[in-house]
């Protein structure tokens, strides 16, 4: 921000020099995470169709679940939080060589897991397990420095994600599919909890700013109830196998709380604003996913896989795509508007969600469901990568830091 000096002159902020990719954490992790997700789903579809005999770490099914959660989603979460902490605290975030080193750590883990024959087992596991705890430390330092305890909540969430990642590796070593399911489902619910917190803070504001309408004030009791219900939904979704009725009740309660929350945000006023309706649509997917998780505990009419993919493809995938497309524009000093390319990306991901969840009811070969939804995902995030590569890899047009 320009400052008026006592002599009447204007002091402009220093112009940042050098390449743009490692100026703030959102740049490499949004780009790298998006591109990696495209390659990962295409490789997964190739494994499912028998098009490749690549022997990935943990086997194809484990690798797919792990890399979409702890590879792709974790990269976006870390990029978002290590960028947001600068806004929260006013302290310059990680950038330059330290940021490049953190990104290289993430990238090396991805390569080691897809080519395990070339890397010692201990090194593969160490590379993957180090990323989230290191990100938690980097996030905590500026928050602790200015004692901004409101935002310290994200640190234990990252550490819980790191614990889930550790459990997923133990499941490979022990060949324990039950532990694998617990680890992956726990990660899904932790990300859902993170969405609950972040969306509650920003979606009403984004809705008001993007649509030119009055901001909906939060109801404190409802906000507390949404957080509490999600905390109760975590054990209901991950554990409690012997208490399906109680577990489903907790999940239905969470769905109702979050449904009321997003209903108050007035989705109908966003229909002309893709950057906003995409956020609302993803939150509705979160509501639907919680409800279907409850149904899956009581009936075989909806499988656990279907419910989880509503949360992962819809709640997470679309929320991430909507958020990174908006955050990337805002933090690079550009107008908060997207064109037809990103609208196609949002709709492609919506189509991927519909196909992945309902395709088994109307397609004879389940492999077609997986391959088709993977291709639609690849289109969505591939369009993001192509559209945002020049934005995220180049300096801000106004020369400001970030």
Automatic annotation (TrEMBL):
The keyword NAD does not apply. It comes from the Bacteria. Keywords: Membrane, Transmembrane, Transmembrane helix. Pfam families: NnrS. The chain crosses the membrane at residues 29-48, 68-88, 100-123, 129-146, 153-172, 178-200, 221-239, 245-263, 275-295, 307-329, 341-363, 369-390. InterPro entries: NnrS. This is NnrS family protein. It comes from Seongchinamella unica.
């Amino acid at each position: 921000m320009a400052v008026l000096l006592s002599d009447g002159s204007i002091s402009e902020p220093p112009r940042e020099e050098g390449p743009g990719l490692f100026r703030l954490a959102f740049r490499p992790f949004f780009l790298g995470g998006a591109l990696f997700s495209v390659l990962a789903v295409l490789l997964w579809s190739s494994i499912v169709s028998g098009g490749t005999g690549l022997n990935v770490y943990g086997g194809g099914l484990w690798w797919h679940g792990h890399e979409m959660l702890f590879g792709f989603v974790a990269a976006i979460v870390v990029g978002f939080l290590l960028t947001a902490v600068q806004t929260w605290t006013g302290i310059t975030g990680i950038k330059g060589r330290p940021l490049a080193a953190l990104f290289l750590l993430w990238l090396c883990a991805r390569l080691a897991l897809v080519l395990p024959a070339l890397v010692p087992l201990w090194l593969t596991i160490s590379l993957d397990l180090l990323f989230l705890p290191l990100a938690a430390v980097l996030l905590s330092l500026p928050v602790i420095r200015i004692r901004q305890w409101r935002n310290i909540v994200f640190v234990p969430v990252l550490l819980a994600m790191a614990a889930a990642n550790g459990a997923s590796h133990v499941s490979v070593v022990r060949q324990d599919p039950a532990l694998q399911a617990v680890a992956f489902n726990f990660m899904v619910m932790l990300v859902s909890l993170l969405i609950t917190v972040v969306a509650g803070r920003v979606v009403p504001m984004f809705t008001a700013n993007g649509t030119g309408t009055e901001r909906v004030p939060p109801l404190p009791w409802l906000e507390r109830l949404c957080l509490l219900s999600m905390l109760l939904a975590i054990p209901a979704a991950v554990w409690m196998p012997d208490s399906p009725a109680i577990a489903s009740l907790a999940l239905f309660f969470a769905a109702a709380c979050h449904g009321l929350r997003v209903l108050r945000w007035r989705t109908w006023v966003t229909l002309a604003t893709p950057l906003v309706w995409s956020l609302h649509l993803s939150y509705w997917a979160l509501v639907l996913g919680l409800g279907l998780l409850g149904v899956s505990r009581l009936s075989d009419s909806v499988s656990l896989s279907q419910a989880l993919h509503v949360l992962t493809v819809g709640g997470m995938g679309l929320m991430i795509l909507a958020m990174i497309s908006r955050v990337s524009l805002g933090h690079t000093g550009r107008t908060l508007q997207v064109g037809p390319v990103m609208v196609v990306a949002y709709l492609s991901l919506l189509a991927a969600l519909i196909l992945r969840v309902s395709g088994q009811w109307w397609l004879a070969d389940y492999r077609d469901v997986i391959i088709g939804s993977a291709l639609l995902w690849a289109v969505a995030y591939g369009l993001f990568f192509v559209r945002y590569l020049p934005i995220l890899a180049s300096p801000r047009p106004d020369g400001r830091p970030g």
